[in-house]
Amino acid sequence: MTAPDYGTAFAAWRGAAGQDWQRYTRHAFVEGLRDGTLPQASYLHYLRQDYVFLIHFARAWALAAAKAETIDEMAAASATVHALVHVEMPLHVQTCASHGIDRTALEATTEAPGNLAYTRYVLEAGYSGDFLDLMAALAPCVLGYGEIGLSLRGNDGPYADWCAVYGGEEYQSLCRDVGALVDGAVERRLGPDWQTLPRATTLQSRFDTATLLEVGFWDIALSPIST
Amino acid sequence: MTAPDYGTAFAAWRGAAGQDWQRYTRHAFVEGLRDGTLPQASYLHYLRQDYVFLIHFARAWALAAAKAETIDEMAAASATVHALVHVEMPLHVQTCASHGIDRTALEATTEAPGNLAYTRYVLEAGYSGDFLDLMAALAPCVLGYGEIGLSLRGNDGPYADWCAVYGGEEYQSLCRDVGALVDGAVERRLGPDWQTLPRATTLQSRFDTATLLEVGFWDIALSPIST
Amino acid sequence: MTAPDYGTAFAAWRGAAGQDWQRYTRHAFVEGLRDGTLPQASYLHYLRQDYVFLIHFARAWALAAAKAETIDEMAAASATVHALVHVEMPLHVQTCASHGIDRTALEATTEAPGNLAYTRYVLEAGYSGDFLDLMAALAPCVLGYGEIGLSLRGNDGPYADWCAVYGGEEYQSLCRDVGALVDGAVERRLGPDWQTLPRATTLQSRFDTATLLEVGFWDIALSPIST
Amino acid sequence: MTAPDYGTAFAAWRGAAGQDWQRYTRHAFVEGLRDGTLPQASYLHYLRQDYVFLIHFARAWALAAAKAETIDEMAAASATVHALVHVEMPLHVQTCASHGIDRTALEATTEAPGNLAYTRYVLEAGYSGDFLDLMAALAPCVLGYGEIGLSLRGNDGPYADWCAVYGGEEYQSLCRDVGALVDGAVERRLGPDWQTLPRATTLQSRFDTATLLEVGFWDIALSPIST
């Protein structure tokens, strides 16, 4: 699998994350989506947890808009919040409804511990740190889904829809935009040689932790379901 | 001037703010807009400061989206950010351009101390407090402009455009929505008798301080111009 | 076991937490401390994770000082930070050293996922909410340790020191102070009937989640050790 | 007046602040302290505003403790909070009492707009930015008072006490510690050549704005008194 080109920072972070990045992007859940062997109950379990996740993920992007230093950064972050709240979350509501989970049931989902851990980690990184901490902690989800989606593009079978959304041009274009936002934000603050600064280690650590929390999120989806 | 009906909380806060509310909504700047005697230089000075203000105001609404407790609150706050960043701020750029202030000059505006005081007060209230602190600190600007706009509706003369925007149905409708958002948010957390709680005093204090900072903002616009 | 009297809010929260409170305060780890059957390796594993925990816990109390609304609240919160950073953490360093874990090893401890989840949950509750959210999320740790300590007081055996610290008068007195701080903070904002307000549900939810995260923390200590 | 040596970052920031630094450290208020011509009413007005200022200043240092990345940074920040809350603020209470302003009157002081602007600017810089933003925004007050105190050391006359406190060894030592904290924090994140990075411009801007807000604070003290 060739890594997609979502910019310089992502390439560096992804490379340094090493095996953990493979554990995330080649997780058994992903392979189950690919070959269609993922049990539907696991998929629905995932969708429900992902809905709760998206609420907090949108909050984190809103925090990024509050912490932006330029109007362009603010516009990019606020457009992402808008897309999450007014497009992606309603889509989840609809998909779940088509599988017999109505909105009330969806919103009553009990947040799994690993889900809580992930979203609070990202939000706290943003509150305690700055815009760059948020970008590094948000990147594995946004861009990892892009990379996974690309590798599943054209897939048919029971999860063809999921593959089409994340492998599709619209989402891929969003990934390139986010990658460019990240590159611009890092260089604007730390200059072109930022990878040599101690700050780069902190950012890598944000990316690495969020990557491991993504692995944990797939694990939830495959774990025996108690919701 | 009959006060417009933007909901229960606003009515209570406005009433308790007393004379300071009149100092804001009947400020000499407002009267100058009404009778057309406001010097154009003052108006342009105001527009430039207001542009800087809107950047931080949008950040505060983004923070509100991050601090929302329901999806509806998040959707309302994020829609406001989106409108500010993608509609209202470009409108300011355009209006200023039509008066010979290009985008570069506009973005190079030196923030007046009273402008800085106001926006940082609102943001800090939001960071240190919760969603309600933000609502109380944001209300005087959003809803005060609605009230002023309503009282200037149909005005012609040099500032007819300004009067048409804030007195117009679109902005009035936004004010009713924000008023409803505030009422819902307060009751959802503090119940129907919230005005009897000590918390009501803190919220009133947020509203009062922001009202005084609005007075200070009009003062800036009328002060000798040094930008 | 009679519940200690650390104030009204704690009593209410503890009561409503129900069985989960027992799962935390009567966890197998606690019983192992009591009867001395806790393997030393588990105890050391716990001490190391607890050191990492205390760092973030102190940060959360510092955030409480930043979000305090009165000088007394600020003084109480800052005294707690001071005690954690200048007394409790050095004590951990010393205890670990006496078991052959030097400071470098201690500070190199890899944060367990359940540890990260807990501390980031508390910090994020504080950043996104207000002082009361922090108090509700901090209470299970501070006051639960008091309750456990009290039930283990006078214990001898290998964990006599731990039991003496948390069951001792100094820590019990701190618990009563924190309980009073919480009671004062809640009443000061929400009035004497705060338990009838919707806000009480959110605070209970903060307390409940932190209680479950405490259960998870004991679980870490008993889990096979990979650090 | 030779600038005191409180470290590299301070020297750079102070140098780049240029004339504004002189406007602050050689303000008419300072000269009035020096030659004893400062009216006592102005001094008392200053003390009262400064008390309100210290509350928020302590909150900002508490936020720094919450945002620290090392235990040493946390210890330094929390020691400062502790000193402010448990030493410096009680000293203000005592000094004011000796001039006939009792604690109730002191705590009822109406915050001047320029006071509010300053503290909210610092806190918001800290919340929206990171530890370094806080350090740059806090430096002009802490270290500027050190520099002023040093230049007034040994002064007698009506303000001998003030001069003795800020020119005294204890405060000078604190300034060297804070200077070292700042230098360590900047290098730890940005490396030895941090002054060449774009980030240095943002930090300078934080320092410059806080310096101007200090000028505004002295202006308050000399303005006609309406409290």
UniProtKB/TrEMBL annotation, chains A, B, C, D:
Domain Thiaminase-2/PQQC: 21-221
Coiled coil stretches, renumbered: none
A Pfam family recorded for this sequence: TENA_THI-4
InterPro entries assigned to the protein according to its UniProt record, in alphabetical order: Haem_Oase-like_multi-hlx, Thiaminase-2/PQQC, Thiamine_Salvage_TenA
PANTHER family: BIFUNCTIONAL TH2 PROTEIN (PTHR43198), SI:CH1073-67J19.1-RELATED (PTHR43198:SF2)
Name listed for the protein in its UniProt record: Transcriptional regulator, putative
